Amino acid sequence: MTNDTQKLVNDEIEVALDEVLASLNTEDRFNSRFRQLVRNAISNNFADGDLRSVIDLAPSDYAEGQ
Amino acid sequence: MDLRIVGWRYKSIRGMRDVQIQLGDVPAQWTLIQMPNGTGKTTTLTLMRLALSGETPDPQTVRSFRPDDVTESGEFVLRITVDGDNCWLILQFDYVEGVMRQFTSRASLDSGGYEPGRRLKRDLQDLLTKDFTRLFVFDGELAKSIRDLSKDEASKSIRTLYQLDRVAQLRQAAQRILETEQEASVRTERGHSNIAGRLKTAEAKLRTLKTERKELEESRSQLRQSIAALDVKRQERISANEGLGERLKGVTAKRADIAASLALLTSQVAELSRNPAAVSEVILVRLHKLAERLQKLKLPKTTSSEFFHELAKAPECICGRPIGPHEKCQIEARANEYLGHNQVAVINAMKEALRTSAADPAVLAERVEQIKGLMRQRKQADHEFDRLCAEREEQGDDQIESIRIELERCRATFDEQERKFLGLTATSKADQQSYGVDWNGNIPLCEKQVAEAKAALTAATNTMRLMEQSTFVQNALHLVEKRAYEALRDRVQTSTNIKLKSLLPGEGIRVSEIGSSLMLSTDALASKDSVSEGQGLAVAYAFLASLFEDAPYGLPFVVDSPAVSLDTLVRREVAELIPSLFGQAIFFVISSEREGFAESFYGRPGANFITVQTGKDGHTSVETGIEPFKAFHSDEDEPQAEVGV
Fold first, then answer.
1. B643 near B141, Cβ under 8 Å?
2. N or C: which end of chain A has fewer CB within 10 A?
3. Which residues 21-40 of A have a C-beta within 8 angstroms of B?
4. Cβ separation B163–A42 shorter than 8 A
5. Interchain contact A47–B (C-beta under 8 A)
6. Which of B1, B173, B466 minimises the CB distance to A48?
7. What is the pLDDT of residues B584-617, one digit of tens each?
């Protein structure tokens, strides 16, 4: 992958992330972890543990350990 | 990642007995291979797709490569480089069985041998699917299917090539994480509600049972007081008669003595029962036998080894005998036999306790007999007391009769409440069973029910929470993927239309939408459903060129008869457009495609020309260079005759 083509894909992904995260109204911590997760996935470099930590930060109506 | 084709070799494939095509270790950007119709162009592209995609052909396809009825096997080897590393993709055909076996050989392998299957770098291994490979080892049929609404080649290729499928894989992973946890817990909102309802019911029942217990405690206390007061009243009524009063004193004193003796004996029996040896002669014998069977008495190693060391150095033993050199050696040599793990002290204590356990079971039996005797005496005293009451009633004392009736009522009520109370508070399983109570009528069991329901609810809540969170993340990923896809798709669409303007000038054909496929329109028609073969090919080229120009992968573009259905003008446009978009392009052409298309490459520094022809003797020759390429002519290569092999 050349730098230019990688940048093209990354730019479009970043724009998509900006728009989607702005519409979700989620906390900063979730946003930054989610963004990093997608970047890693595009680079084919993510682990289930990273995904799980993002899921755990996602909002829910169910209180933890209720 | 950059993939290049650097050559291939046929062995017993159709008319190719043993033919090798070499493009050089660093292949030219454009290679034009001139092969007459019927000599293996379509076959070669099919073999390349099989090698790159790793798909398994059906027996009919395998046998279609068979050169004659006697040849039993054949081989095709495609040599590629991936980021400069050599790799050989080998296809071996068993024409008799109709099967193909694939192997991979890589320069990086120490053994240099064949690995079964297609083994590419991870990214390529995932990327090069059957459908995707058709995009760059270009199948003429794709030009038609790419516009076919029933297929989703267009959108799928954008998602795959721009790696958006990796975001889709994230979504699948989020679902997998959720399903793994759900296997151990509830799956639905309803399941969660059921558990919450179960907890609510159990908590309400526990509150009811505790209230009941409190009421029973108060009621039983009042009943005890009433019974005691009625007892006093009754004794007062009996004492009102002088004769009966004296007898009452005697009976009362006797009952008090019996109660005191019973209390004393009961505590003695309880104490004796704590020693198993005192319960039965049989138990005593068995305890002594157990002590004999326990291991030889040993001393704790860490604290006692020094004892033997000191003893060996002493002039005389603890038994008073002198310790000479022989005894010293024996003590040191045999010390370990008497030393054990530190925990051996516990075993020693057990053994000592078992060995010295002693008691006379007859004492316990005697005490039990004494209790039985006293209980008989108490019964007699109670009868005597009842007789006194009866005599008083016979003397016409109405009050004592009503006191008796009230006492009987109070005692019956008390007994009933006592039974309820004991059932309500029983802690042992045996007691709970004897009172016939479950968690609906027993506080300890109900408390356990509440605790279990709470634990289940916590687990269910966590699962429901995870389900919501996982769904949230999956939806967010879907939105990102959708948004990025739309942006990249629009980019490809715009780029495709720019190219179409120069490929099909004046025709106004453009891609109006890339949905599940390419939808075309013109200035006059909102939806152009039918196009000529040449127009379709131009659309496919424009789309593929746009798709690959920004793609993160450098892939070779291999195409069979790229210009045969195009008119000369469009051929020149295609010849200008396609080559610049790929790091490597391989064109299989027939002699009639030289005009307009192949001739556009004459004199270009990055172009390589190869001519392959099979003589009447069946021998296939491969010539490299522009002159043989220009000079070659086949009478069979008529454009309309191009049907592929």
1. no
2. C
3. 21, 23-24, 34, 37-38
4. yes
5. no
6. B173
7. 899 999 888 888 888 888 888 889 999 998 887 8
CB atoms within 10 A of CB B222: 12
When scoring A23, A60, A61, A64 by the number of chain B Cβ atoms within 10 A, the one with the most, hence best to mutate, is A60
Q: Write the single-letter amino acid at B364.
A: L
What separation in angstroms does the CA of B46 have from each of A37, B74, B586?
A: 39, 15, 14
**Three-state secondary structure string covering B93-123:** EECCCCEEEEEEEECCCCCCCCEECCCCCHH
Rounded to whole angstroms, the Cα distance separating B372 from B355 reads 33
Residue type for position B393: E
* CB B483, CB A16: distance < 8 Å: yes
What is the torsion angle, in degrees rounded to the nearest 10, for the CA atoms of residue B6, residue B604, residue B539 and residue B545?
50
Q: Which residues pair with B21 in a beta bridge?
A: B8
Residue of B nearest to A49 (CA): B177
Q: How far is CA B396 from the centre of its chain?
A: 87
DSSP code, position B322: B
From chain B, which residues contact A within 8 Å (Cβ)? 1, 122-123, 162-163, 166-167, 169-170, 173-174, 177, 457-458, 461-462, 464-466, 468-470, 472-473, 476-477, 479-481, 483-484, 487-488, 491, 550-554
Contact B526, B512 (CB under 8 A): yes
As a whole number of angstroms, the distance between CA B505 and CA B379 comes to: 124
Which amino acid is residue B82, in one-letter code?
V
User: Where do we find the tokens 């007789």?
Assistant: B387
C-alpha neighbours within 13 Å on the C-beta side of residue B637? 20
Lookup: tokens for B349: 């204590």
Q: What is the pLDDT of residues B392-409, one digit of tens each?
A: 888 877 888 899 899 999
pTM attached to this predicted model: 0.57
